[in-house]
Design a protein that fits this description.
With about 625 residues, the chain is α/β, with parallel strands linked by helices. Helix content is about 60%, strand content about 10%. Helix 8 runs antiparallel to helix 9. The protein is elongated and about 120 Å long. It starts with about 35 loop residues before the first helix and ends in a 7-residue tail after the last helix.
Length: about 625
Amino acid sequence: MNTQHDDRTAAPEPAPPPVPAAPASAPAAPESAAPAPTWRVLLGHMRPSWRYLALGGLLNVLTAAAGLTIPLAAERLIDGLGSGRPLRGVLLLMGVLVVVTALAGPLGQYVLRRAAESIVLTARRRLSSHLLRLRVPEFDRTEPGDLIARVTSDTTLLRQVTADSLVGTATGALTLVVTTTLMCVLDPVLTAVTLGVLVLAGWIVRTVMSRVNEASTAAQESVGLVGAALERAFGALRTVKASGAEERAEAAVHDAAHDSWRAGVRAAKWLALAGNTAELAMQIAFFTVLAVGGARVASGELEAGRLIAFLMYVFYLVPAVQQLVGGISQYHLGAAAVTRIQEAERLRAEDLPAGPGNGRIPLPGPGREPASLEFRDLHFRYSPELPPVHRGVSFTVPPRGITAFVGPSGAGKTTLFSLIERFYEPTGGSVLVDGRELGRWDIRELRSVIGYVEQDAPVISGSLRDNLLLGCPGADGVDIRHVLRTARLDDLVRRLPQGLDTPVGHRGTMLSGGQRQRVAIARALLRRPRLLLLDEATSQLDAVNEAALRDTVADIARTTTVLVVAHRLSTVALADRIVVLDGGVVRAVGTHAELVAADPLYAELAATQFLQHTN
């Protein structure tokens, strides 16, 4: 009988306990970080691409200027036809204006789109870099699927809000002002009629825009909820299938998708109403101008050529108004996305360099001394609402040798490793490595001296080589072959069709549980750590491989400080020292023989697993 007291079966210690989550659509942010105005954030995103945005804007202005000159040329052409004046110059001018419009317009759109794509790329790089450096407690409180949506769909809207909204609104507003001015010069009466209709339409559109903003925000949040629902289902797909829960998982995804559909339809309704109001206003303005202008031409107050020029300006006014309304609509869509991006950027991150390779700490090499470790009156809880995990833990681990941690589930064994890695910060007391408190270590430097094999031995998608080199990309072939032999993976590599370059599948699904554990062990050993943390590193190994790994760990412990969490006491019976944890405190410290004789809890655990006292 092999009864394992597994931390994973009890809260709150092993895989941090559930923390009251903030809504997926609004991750928690530090209260001191007041959000900047949306326009200022957008300008910050646009600043690196301002030259292309300015060039695209100028080309759009040039296109608009050429277009606005055409009605004046048309007036001269019509008047010339009636008076018999030569028309060669007017025709040449109109030809040049048409060519300029045909060339500058597409070029301006291309330049703006290129700038917008660069803005999206920069935003995605910055946001993804920030999210990859999130503190673990922040990540615990959010939905990964929602964070993915912020990097993908929300940043995509920056393309529209920069190229179509800000630049488009500025161009549309300038075109509207110039067009209105020229119309006023041509005929103030008809201009007043046109503007009266537009002012009424503008008031209606302004009222509608507030609804557009609300609907757009809800639509963006619902997209994040769809991603979160899918991530939850895909992240435990085997469990879902084994539990026969496909329909329930499907229903959860479908409900989120339906909520997203409703929010999108609501946003589309208000956007359509805003756009149709503007278009209807222009049609009313056109027919009103045609009626009033026609009457004035019939009475001789207005020349026919001028009326035609004015009607052409009304037509030019239509795209300018639509561009302005569309730009405002896109701004509201982008504002909702910017708000979600800001929320993600305000999540607290670790103090790590943001650029790839910046501040990289060299990995420890041969000859480095093993690390010492000390816990001083350590207190920790995952959140104020949850009970404490540790209540005054104190002990010292000297350099070299194996220190094992045993105790009932929920005693805080795995959490000790998370604190050593600075995934979490103590709520009281301190942890020291090499006599220096963890808070005084650079996080990258600290983790460069630690090799960590987690409980579930995660394997990333990609090849076996990718997984081995994850923490030590510069390792050579000799080092790789050595860790493969040490972790007893060399035979597996020989059997694989592509050797080290064989894909391991999503989350290592092409490997068995024991193979994934050995990959994780090899990956940790390749870093040549000064401190090796093994959290249930043999739980999925057979007896032969477990015995071989114990011998390997014993060899490593001669030059490295090794900490082991295990529920198989056979794994820790030969440790140099064993720390018994219970109820968040250190119950006893000693060798296997000493603890069997002196500590009832350890003796009970040993007896349960048929371990005999050895003198």
